[in-house]
Amino acid sequence: MSLEIKVPPVGESITEVVLSRWIKNDGDVVEMDEVIAELESDKATFELTAEQAGTLKTIAAEGDTLAIGAVVCKIEYGGAAPAKAEAPKAEEKAVVAEDKTTAPVAEKASGESYATGTPSPAAGKILAEKGIDAGAVKGTGVDGRITKDDAVKAEAGKKPEAPKASAPVAAAVPAGARDERREKMSPLRKTVAKRLVSVKNETAMLTTFNEVNMKPIMDLRGKYKDSFKEKYGVGLGFMSFFTKAVTEALKDFPAVNARIDGEEIVYNNFADVSIAVSAPKGLVVPVIRNAESMSLAEIEKSVLALALKARDGKLTIEEMTGGTFTITNGGVFGSMMSTPIINAPQSAILGMHNIIERPIAEKGEVVIRPMMYVALSYDHRIIDGRESVGFLVRVKQLLEDPARLLLGV
Asked: CA 20 to 30 Å from 149, out of 109, 234, 318, 369?
């Protein structure tokens, strides 16, 4: 008797998964609720556990795509893993008796070497006129003597020439390694690819840019970062300031926080901010729920917790769905400017970039300030130019005057 272990339902929108790794091997004895394999969907990684104790019999292989409800393996009731049958030994090869008969020596080439007999005077004269060496003519006379007839029949240019030394072949110049490596796209990568192409094809995406003087925030962080970490147990980063600034700006421009659903526009009175995080298996976008009601410390703790889960592949589907606005930070990789792609079904995404000291004009003087380019990509079907530019300007104002974030002005 055995129990079939099937792919469990993992989400309403997920119809198939990939068996990414067997943790237990075929024939292993497993305990009830012991993790035996990892399943990967287009959104997260899940653990498959044994539903009873027994001996594992694998059915699916690593890399297989399985539909929800498909059989992954079986567990036989009780007992130790049966010893695997030894592979039949290879049959001994028959010893072929050696043929003691000496192999016949290969015959010499049928063409004999030319005779070197002395030509007759008449033959010698003819050969001289033709410019033929006597050694290149086979004589038919007595003792191989070259006759006049032999000389007449001899043709110029028939003298076998000594083989010329071959010109050394130039060694091929190595062109470097040209190996190729193919990998099957993971469900996450396939889903990301499909969604990005879909967004480009189905939305009227446009991007507007601005720049932010980061000196006020950098001064504030430098002044309070130690006491902030001592009190809250987490560092004070830029993401909390940007998230807070976004949630305030969304209150003034609700269309940026909305989405299109069929022929309706859905406006949200809350801000679930998605934070783009680079994980080992690809880009994931966990969500900070109700970020508009959080303090800077609460936002920093949420960002840290989600980033650690993303790194370890422990994010759940619930933690990656339902955002209303996205922030992505290409600056951590050195990006100076980019046009981020909207995270559907949202209508806008804010791109942060690296901070570069540049000369700018302040009160009629040229000064050096740490500047960051920011980009807002938005769906022009729902967000007008006035709203997109106004939103980005509002974010800029809040970041360049952090006191506004605390006072809400």
From this structure: 109
Q: pLDDT digits over 126-163, tens only?
A: 777 777 877 777 777 766 777 777 777 776 554 445 55
Q: Which of 26, 219, 226, 380 is catalytic?
A: 380
In a domain, 192, yes or no: no
Q: Which domain range does residue 313 map to?
A: 205-407
More confident site: 399 or 95:
399
Q: Is residue 380 flagged as an active site residue?
A: yes
| Higher per-residue pLDDT: 325 or 33 | 325
Q: Which of 143, 179, 384, 401 is catalytic?
A: 384
Tens of pLDDT along 319-377?
A: 888 899 999 999 888 999 999 999 989 999 999 999 999 999 999 999 999 999 999 99
Q: Which residues contact 289 (CB under 8 A, 6 or more apart)?
A: 272
DSSP string, 161-196: PPPPPPPPPPPPPP---------PPPHHHHHHHHHH
Termini Cα distance of the chain: 70
Backbone angles phi, psi at 367, to 5 degrees: -130, 160
CATH code of the domain covering residue 296: 3.30.559.10
